[in-house]
Write a structure and sequence with these properties.
It comes from Pseudonocardia adelaidensis. Belongs to the CdaR family. This is Helix-turn-helix domain-containing protein. Residues 190-298 form the CdaR GGDEF-like domain. The protein is 61% helix and 6% strand. The protein is of the alpha+beta class. The protein has 4 domains: 14-149; 170-194, no CATH class; 200-313, Alpha-Beta Plaits; 324-415, PucR C-terminal helix-turn-helix domain (Arc Repressor Mutant, subunit A), CATH 1.10.10. Helix 1 (14-38) packs across helix 6 (95-112), helix 7 crosses helix 10 (285-298) and helix 13 crosses helix 15 (370-384). The radius of gyration is 35 Å and the shape is rod-shaped. The N and C termini lie far apart (118 Å).
């Protein structure tokens, strides 16, 4: 019987180890040929990606030969096969594709190595070694992809925070001036570029929702928020800015949400949650964020507001805290239509509000029949969508009338 020398801890003789070393190049080539033959997508890879796979395969074969010769508790060099690979290999090959390649390589090992064994004991040792090494390689690949996913997740989180911050800050107060046109253009380009990198469609309509972040398990709640948005076909970007949570929620064409933010509210702490108006696209979302944040500042003045209240439903409160946008919008939505309609609508509304909502007292003050007052108030509702007889709508109309008087420094009734 031929003496093969003292066997390694793995049960493989020096002579067989020498055969493995000599066969390493052919073994790597056989792995690559099997990958190309059994995976149609492999042949479509770019030359640099195929070269990266080849490098990983050759290193893996060399590591196996080194390990089988002095096998210890675990293969110490398996991760090295992936560390020397080009950095973008793990980004451009999916984990599933990598596992398929590892499986093919393991099967090639199982086919080509046993014939090199000197006897049955070595054959069993080689088969066992191949299975164990293949398992460790698969774990090493999973570790590499997990690390890559963590890095990508951290990068995505930073970019997401930048997008949300840009939407909140806007292009700057002078963005409309010709001199600062380049700055505004740069703001839009940067915003769109970062959002596109996160898979957000910058042309998609959206709303901005603001409130306080939930104090308990915020990460779990935000993860659930992302899952719910994904299930409903929406995109979501989230930013925690100190004591406030800002959520950008898309409203894709064909998805009828009606402004319903559903489970988004659950990611917020108890307290006011304000929904900004619908923005046509991402660059226009700053106006939605501005209105939502103004509503959040004014929300304490309306403790009976719904859990999620529209920013436009807080116009009187926003005007009282000095929001110029709300001031102007109250005038344009509640007063300008009455002025444009002419007649006595605005004067009747003012008299009705001054009389405390008393129909007969208003009629006496105007020297008209109470039915005339009723008719004019119905016309006010038709033109503004607000009912003077409703306490909340009456407050909106009263604040709108005050805002109109302050705007021009004169009573709009005199010019109406």
């Amino acid at each position: 019987m031929t003496d093969h020398g003292a066997r390694a801890p793995s049960g493989v003789s020096p002579a067989t180890l020498r055969k493995l070393e000599l066969a390493a190049g052919d073994l790597a080539a056989a792995c690559l040929a099997a990958m190309a033959r059994r995976q149609p997508w492999f042949a479509r890879l770019s030359a640099d990606l195929r070269a990266g796979v080849q490098l990983v395969t050759q290193t893996g074969v060399a590591n196996f030969v080194a390990w089988i010769g002095k096998r210890g508790a675990s293969p110490p060099l398996t991760a090295e096969a992936f560390r020397i690979a080009p950095r973008d290999l793990a980004r451009r090959l999916t984990l599933s594709q990598t596992v398929d390649l590892v499986r093919i390589a393991t099967e090639v090992f199982e086919e080509h190595l046993p014939p090199l064994a000197a006897d049955e004991a070595e054959r069993r040792a080689l088969v066992e070694g191949v299975l164990r090494f293949g398992r460790e390689i698969a774990f090493a690949a999973a570790t590499v992809y997990a690390g890559e996913a963590e890095s990508r997740g951290a990068w995505d989180a930073r970019v997401e925070a930048l997008v949300v911050d840009a939407v909140v800050r806007g292009p700057g107060p002078d963005a409309g001036n010709t001199a600062s046109g380049n700055t505004a253009r740069s703001w839009v380009d940067g915003l769109v570029s970062r959002a596109a990198a996160l898979g957000w469609d910058p042309a998609e309509p959206l709303r901005v929702v603001v409130g306080s972040p939930a104090p308990e398990a915020p990460e779990e709640l935000l993860s659930e928020l992302r899952r719910e948005a994904d299930r409903s076909g929406q995109s979501v970007l989230v930013g925690v800015q100190g004591s406030r949570l800002v959520v950008l929620l898309s409203e894709p064409p064909g998805l009828d949400t009606g402004g319903d933010i559903g489970t988004v509210v659950e990611a917020f702490a108890p307290g006011p949650v304000v929904v900004g108006p619908r923005a046509a696209d991402l660059p226009g979302a700053h106006a939605s964020a501005r209105d939502a944040l103004a509503g959040l500042r004014a929300a304490p003045a309306r403790p009976d507001a719904p859990a999620a209240v529209a920013a436009d439903d807080l116009l009187p409160e926003r005007a009282l805290v000095g929001d110029a946008v709300a001031h102007r919008r109250l005038v344009t939505t509640a007063i300008d239509p009455l002025i444009a309609a002419g007649g006595e609508l605005l004067a009747t509304l003012a008299a009705f509000l001054e009389s405390g909502g008393a129909l007969e007292a208003c009629a006496r003050a105007l020297f008209v029949h109470s039915n005339t007052v009723r008719y004019r108030l119905r016309r006010v509702t038709e033109l503004t969508g607000l009912r003077p007889t409703d306490p909340r709508d009456a407050l909106v109309l009263r604040i709108a009338l005050l805002a109109a008087r302050l705007e021009d420094g004169r009573d709009p009734i005199d010019g109406g």
